[in-house]
């Protein structure tokens, strides 16, 4: 008996992941919940635990493979008695090759591309006609408007025909190529065995990730100069990107793409081309979708931070001593927003078809910058939390965001977002909505400015506030009222205690 290891739920709107690293190999003993492999999505890294104890059996999805939700990753043999299964399968493969084909050709079809994706473009063929291929060896890579999809060989044999050349646009049911029949397959096993030493000219006998090969070819990088971090030294796409960004002699300049402004050969040699990470691609797509979908407007105000700063200075040491966390400005802003959202509930709502969904809770998104891009962890039920609880949650989520350890669940379900550009020195900006939310508050740098108060000019610590809102739900009056209520609560924090 064996237990299947499948792709776990990846989270809302995430349908695919890439197998980044296997921590176990066939024949290894595994314990229940021991980490078997790591998957990368366009948002987070997901670790896959063992669903049962036993011996690692067959690895179905190798490193670099793109898999969908619930796809089979591997099998775990029950008990030590089955530990020889992987070896037996490996030894049986060459003998089975002639019988697999039986004189029949096998079609290579476009794999499932994911929800709402109907076509793809053939970007790269890793094999050419006449090459020997093993079952599950990567044949080509397809590009969709969402992700890149690598196509494995459905059988062992010889690539006898390529139907869709590079650059061809294919639909979800198209044929890509043909794997040859019995004669070709019969010779594939010894040919593959001889090919391994020949391919090991770089000093290793493992196959680099196809996406890494493609990137090395594009950048003219010698595989011998790249240190692989995959299993057994396998070169992954990230390794190539790292090598490309390291100081080195610039590769020969490529012809400038037609969509770019023409550059000289000297300029091209000093440029660096790095493929966008899946996270950055998702950020770019979602932000543009937000602009295209929502009727987004921004209203501005300013807040005198004198009272908040005085209150914070007075109680910060006592607060830290009692609660074990520093008293920052974010808890004041979170409380002020929760207070204002009760009065203007449409800012805490979203559109679902022809309905407006009002939220009787506040799940506050706190935008956080990380080395890989912007993420928005969500503090659930922030409206029922104390100042200390909010500060602890912000500190914990922020640390997890910087370490890349946020789960999908921690970044979903937000009803309103606060973005603090002031930590980077921003004086004024127009934040972009985080769909499907209808409001986002932008905080900015606190700057001393001369203000006219009671007929006198005084210096006060001022901050510009910006509320971007979806005009389809929120009218101008509601947006201005919300921002005024936030301003009033911050300029007189006692209002928060008395619910005024």
UniProtKB/TrEMBL annotation:
Region of interest (Disordered), ranges: 240-271
One example GO MF annotation: dihydrolipoyllysine-residue succinyltransferase activity
Highest taxon, organism lineage: Bacteria
Gene Ontology CC: cytosol; oxoglutarate dehydrogenase complex
Low complexity compositional bias, start-end: 243-259
EC numbers, comma separated: 2.3.1.61
Subunit structure: Forms a 24-polypeptide structural core with octahedral symmetry. Part of the 2-oxoglutarate dehydrogenase (OGDH) complex composed of E1 (2-oxoglutarate dehydrogenase), E2 (dihydrolipoamide succinyltransferase) and E3 (dihydrolipoamide dehydrogenase); the complex contains multiple copies of the three enzymatic components (E1, E2 and E3).
Protein name (record): Dihydrolipoyllysine-residue succinyltransferase component of 2-oxoglutarate dehydrogenase complex
């Amino acid at each position: 008996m064996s237990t299947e290891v499948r792709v776990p739920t990846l989270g809302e709107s995430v349908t695919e992941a890439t197998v980044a690293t296997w921590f176990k190999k066939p024949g290894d003993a595994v314990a229940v919940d021991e980490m078997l492999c790591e998957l990368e999505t366009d948002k987070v890294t997901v670790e896959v635990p063992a669903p049962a104890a036993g011996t690692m059996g067959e690895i179905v999805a190798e490193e670099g493979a793109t898999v969908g939700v619930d796809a089979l990753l591997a099998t775990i043999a029950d008990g030590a008695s089955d530990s020889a299964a992987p070896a037996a399968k490996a030894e049986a493969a060459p003998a089975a090759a002639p019988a697999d084909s039986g004189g029949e050709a096998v079609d290579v079809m476009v794999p499932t591309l994911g929800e709402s994706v109907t076509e793809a473009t053939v970007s790269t063929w890793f094999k050419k006609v006449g090459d020997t291929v093993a079952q599950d060896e990567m044949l080509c890579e397809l590009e969709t408007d969402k992700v890149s999809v690598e196509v494995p060989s459905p059988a062992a044999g010889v690539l006898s025909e390529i139907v869709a050349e590079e650059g061809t646009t294919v639909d979800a049911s198209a044929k890509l190529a043909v794997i040859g029949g019995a004669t070709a397959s019969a010779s594939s096993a010894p040919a593959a065995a001889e090919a391994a030493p020949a391919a090991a000219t770089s000093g290793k006998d493992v196959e680099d990730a196809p996406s890494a090969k493609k990137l090395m070819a594009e950048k003219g990088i010698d595989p011998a100069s790249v240190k692989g971090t995959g299993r057994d030294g396998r070169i992954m796409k990230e390794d190539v990107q790292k090598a490309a960004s390291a100081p080195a002699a610039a590769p020969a300049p490529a012809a400038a793409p037609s969509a770019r402004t023409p550059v000289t050969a000297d300029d091209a040699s000093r440029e660096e081309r790095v493929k966008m990470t899946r996270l950055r691609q998702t950020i770019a797509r979602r932000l543009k979708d937000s602009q295209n979908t929502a009727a987004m407007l921004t209203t501005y105000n300013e807040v005198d931070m004198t009272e908040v700063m005085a209150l914070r200075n007075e109680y910060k040491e006592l607060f830290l001593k009692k609660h074990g966390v520093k008293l920052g400005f974010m808890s004041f802003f979170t409380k002020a927003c929760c207070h204002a959202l009760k009065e203007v509930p449409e800012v805490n709502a979203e559109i679902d078809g022809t309905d407006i969904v009002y939220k009787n809770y506040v799940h506050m998104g706190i935008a956080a910058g990380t080395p890989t891009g912007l993420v928005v962890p969500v503090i659930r039920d922030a409206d029922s939390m104390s100042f200390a609880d909010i500060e602890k949650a912000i500190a914990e989520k922020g640390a997890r965001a910087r370490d890349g350890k946020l789960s999908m669940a921690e970044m979903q379900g937000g009803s309103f977002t606060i973005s603090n550009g002031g930590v980077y020195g921003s004086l004024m900006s127009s934040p972009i909505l985080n769909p499907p939310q209808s409001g986002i508050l932008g905080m900015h740098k606190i700057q001393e400015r001369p203000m006219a108060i009671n007929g006198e000019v005084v210096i006060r610590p001022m901050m510009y506030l910006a509320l971007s809102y979806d005009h389809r739900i929120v009218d101008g009056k509601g947006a201005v009222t919300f921002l005024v209520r936030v301003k009033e609560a911050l300029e007189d924090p006692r209002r928060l205690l008395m619910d005024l």
